[in-house]
Write a structure and sequence with these properties.
Alpha-Beta Plaits, 45% helix, 3 domains, alpha+beta, 5 strands
Length: 231
Amino acid sequence: MTDTKDPRLDDERRLAEFRRVAAEIAADAPTLAKIAINGLIRDHNPLFEGSSKSAGRAGRQSGNVSELTAIAALKPGGADRLRRIFDLTGGNFDGAQKVSTLHDMRFVFFDDDTRILFATTYDGDWDTYINDFATKIPDLMDLLFANIEGWPGIAAPEVKDFIAGLQIDAAGWFVANPQVTVVDVRRLQRMEQALDAFLDTMAGNADADPATRAALGTLSEQVSVPHGVDY
């Protein structure tokens, strides 16, 4: 039997539940807080809709994008060694580009350089991400994380247990473009460059008929208009 359930019903129930919780939270809140909470309830373009589900073994995932946040104790002198590495690279880890799911990585020292916070954003699930690091940039991983107390080595069978043991799931996880992966971004950048080159070439084509010129003009105007954030 064909399932005729309207998927919009789930959205309506989820929105009603959100409104109920928001109303409870805002019951004793100042007026400005209530306005801010109401702003969270607006319907959004489904292209920007997240999911806030589990990324697998640890972490949260919104759409295609996941987060990993870990806190670890540093070996004596570990912060200084890592700072020298970061200074040498100027903040650029070109080798990390080999991990095609990696959006970003952040390293923060605290507690007088005795501990480190490592946070990263990536596409897909947790296990696949750790496997990518182990197979594509193992030397870089060991160079950096050998400064952490207890680091077993990226090739060690227990490395996943070690990482998961340090990880703390985000309580809240927002992604502006949850459906857009790193691969998508790179493809869109190539498409933009190709389109710009095409428009430049056609702009100098004196043989183009008026209809073609009008269509190209409209296309050029549309792609040059910044996309507003108030969707």
